[in-house]
Each structure stands twice: as C-alpha cells, then as structure tokens.
Amino acid sequence: MQNYPGALNAAVASAMTRLLQPTGRDVFVNLCCGSGSLLIERAAHGPAARLIGLDNAPAALALCRANLRAAGSGLAARVELIQADAREAPLPDGSITALCADLPFGQQVGSHAANLALYPAALADAARIAAPGARLCVISHEARLMADSLARNPGWELIEERRISLNGIFPRIYLLRRAPAR
Ligand SMILES: C[S@@+](CC[C@H](N)C(=O)[O-])C[C@H]1O[C@@H](n2cnc3c(N)ncnc32)[C@H](O)[C@@H]1O
Q1: Average pLDDT, stretch 87-94?
Q2: Which of 76-108 are b and which e, b meaning 16 or more Cβ less than 10 Å from the residue's Cβ?
Q3: How far apart are alpha carbons 126 and 32 in whole angstroms?
Q4: Of 48, 98, 147, 155, which sits most exposed with the smallest number of CB within 10 A?
Q5: Ligand 1: which of 55, 91, 139 to mutate, most ligand atoms within 8 Å of CB?
Q6: In 3D, which of 166, 116, 170, 138 has the Cα closest to residue 32?
Q7: CA-CA distance, 26 to 49, in Å (whole number)?
Q8: Positive or negative, the Cα torsion across 115, 6, 160, 95?
Q9: Whole-number Å distance between alpha carbons of 117 and 91
Q10: In terms of Cα–Cα distance, which of 148, 155, 98 is closest to 118?
Q11: 1 pLDDT band (50/70/90 cuts)?
Q12: How many percent of the chain have pLDDT more than 90?
C-alpha cells in the first residue's frame, strides 16, 4: 500500500463503509476517493452491483489503482475509477444507492477557501446522483461548513453525527439519507 496525504486509516474506513449497511445490490460510489481507503474497504467487505471511485487528481487515482492491485483478491477488476469533479459527477440522476466521501479537511489536503465552494456543491451533486433512500457517509473536520451546507440542502437528512479522534484531531462522521423529493 502506498501513502497519500490525508489517507484514512483502515479502521475508520471500514467503520464508515459498514454504516452504509452494504448489500450485494449496492451501486456504490466513493467521491473524492484519493488513494482508495474507503473504496478498498467496501470492495473487501463483499459483492456489489457496481463499485466506483471518483477523484479529480490523476496522481490520486494512480495511487488508488496501485493500492487496489496491492490489496489482491481481484478487487482491482471489480472497481471503476473516474477522473472527475465531485461537483459534477458524470453519473446519472438517482443512479447511486450508497455513497461515501472523505472530503478534504482543508489542512493537509485542500484549503478552507476551496472547501467553501466544494462542500455545498459536492453535497448537492451527491443528492442529484443518489437514489431515493440512498445513504451517504462523510468524514470531515469542517464541522461548521458541513452544518451550514446541510442546513441549506434539503436533499440530505442527518441520521447520525459522531465526533471521533483521529491522529490528534477530532473530525466528524456524518451518516445521511437521501430525503424523499418534496
Ligand atoms: C482527504 S483526501 C481523500 C483521501 C482518501 N480517503 C484516501 O484514503 O486516500 C481528499 C481527496 O479529494 C480530492 N478532491 C479535492 N477536490 C475535489 C473535487 N472537486 N472533485 C473530486 N475530487 C476532489 C483530492 O484529490 C483528494 O484525493
């Protein structure tokens, strides 16, 4: 496995993917997949109809590909990687049943200024591609920005928010459900 700045540890990635209650029917997407911690944990958990990783950085996707191969068990062959902006994912409306994202915290990866534009737009596009009732699990250290972005986005209902301790900081894991259309 190769290191990537801001990569999640496997224990947190595994816990997040389990919060999505995986099933073999999942059409799963890992937005901002980076080197693939969440994607690998989900693929290793069991079958899915589709497993997709999306990131806008070619270097991150190259690492993700290498890590999928290193993980073995044929995981690399089961996963599709897409280079794209998480604010405009090239995926059809309502097509995804389970989503997760380790959004840039704005410290090691990205900046708070960039996050001000990224978070609301990425959450809005995630709601567009999510099927009714789909779950989205997000980890972020931008607590206020997440609260503001979710308050302005009727597409997501908060199921649960947990503050965790991770490498000396206290990010939050958000478990969300795609709200029914009004
Ligand atoms: C915190 S890192 C993800 C780390 C990942 N969980 C791992 O284990 O390696 C955030 C990722 O978001 C990606 N990213 C930032 N802005 C993006 C955007 N607008 N669209 C897609 N990906 C983006 C970065 O390239 C980076 O790989």
Answers
A1: 98
A2: beebebbeebbbebebeeeebbbbbbbbbbbee
A3: 11
A4: 147
A5: 55
A6: 138
A7: 5
A8: positive
A9: 20
A10: 148
A11: low
A12: 91
Query: Does 40 have pLDDT greater than 70?
Result: yes
86 Cα to the center of ligand 1, angstroms: 9
Which residue minimizes the CA distance to atom 19 of ligand 1? 85
Contact (Cβ atoms closer than 8 angstroms) between residue 95 and residue 23 = no
> How many whole angstroms from 32 Cα to the centroid of ligand 1?
4
Distance CA 75, CA 67 (A): 10
Which run of H or of E encompasses 158? Answer: strand 156-163
Q: Distance between CA 74 and CA 70 in Å, rounded?
A: 10
Any bridge partners for residue 167, and if so which? none
Give the CA radius of gyration of the chain.
Answer: 15
pTM over 0.70: yes
Delineate the domains of the chain, giving CATH numbers in brackets. 10-178 (3.40.50.150)
Q: Who's near 79: CB < 8 A, 6+ residues apart?
A: 39, 43, 51, 52, 53, 68
Cα–Cα separations (whole angstroms), residue 74 to 8, 11, 45, 181: 22, 21, 13, 38
Tens digit of each residue's pLDDT (9 = 90 or more) over 100-121: 999 999 877 779 999 999 999 9
Tell me: pLDDT of 67 over 70.
Answer: yes
